[in-house]
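Researcher: Going back to the complex we discussed earlier. I've cleaned up the inputs and rechecked each line, so this should be the final set. Can you rerun the prediction on the complete assembly and write out the structure?
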Amino acid sequence: MKVLDQLYEGKAKRVFKTDDDQLYMVEYKDDATAFNGEKKGTIAHKGVLNNKISGWFFNRLTDQGVKNHLVQVVDDDHQLVKRVEIIKLEVIVRNIIAGSMAKRLGLEEGLVAKTPIIEFSYKDDDLGDPLINRYHAQALGVATKEEIDTIISEAFKINDLLSQWLDEANLILVDFKLEFGRTPDGTIILADEISPDTCRLWDKDTREKLDKDRFRRDLGGVAEAYVEVWRRLQALDQ
Ligand code: UDP
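Model: Rerun complete. Updated structure for the full complex:
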């Protein structure tokens, strides 16, 4: 596999073309941003850890029949993925109220949702990823009704699987963000990453935050938290 030109550089990853036009190489970076890029920093070894953590989740999801873009984790900070057209939606799943939802609705962080919640944000950095609903997405041609039905059922299924695995790792899956892509034949598959950058994870006993909120809120011990999540996931394979 030959890696060719860089196609795109995002906040936490770089994407490269390869000599197979159906495959891209993704490089995970240590850079971290929050609040729509206002806060910037680096987290030691984050690229390696997120590559491994996300690879772990995607491989397990593959085993459970959840179609996704991962072909293989290639080395410490690279993974080979299928080329997809990213759907311009951030799909947020919430089990416990936190972050922007707590703020928006004046709710206390930690309130347990009676049922899981799905939210959509329109992926547009200039607009700050505004909250929209499925009808906006359909009406504006971001995705079709059938595609959104698929995205919702996949997101709930992924939530059930991740919650179960993380529970075994003594972690609570508070909320997380997913992105989906369209393959050239029009199939909707899970893309992007699942990591402490994109999930809120709380220790089940102490409720200690083990995710990017440590960076967002200057809580310290950011890199250590990512290491701890990876340690607990690996322990599940023993
Ligand atoms: N999230 C993400 N990328 C974003 C926005 C949110 O990965 O651009 C994740 C975030 O880490 C959390 C969940 O989605 O696990 C819900 O985030 P929320 O809407 O509460 O926004 P935030 O508080 O992060 O601004």
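Model: Worth noting: Residues 90, 92, 98-101, 129, 175-177, 198-200, 212 surround uridine-5'-diphosphate (CB under 6 Å).
Researcher: Good, that matches what I expected from the previous run.
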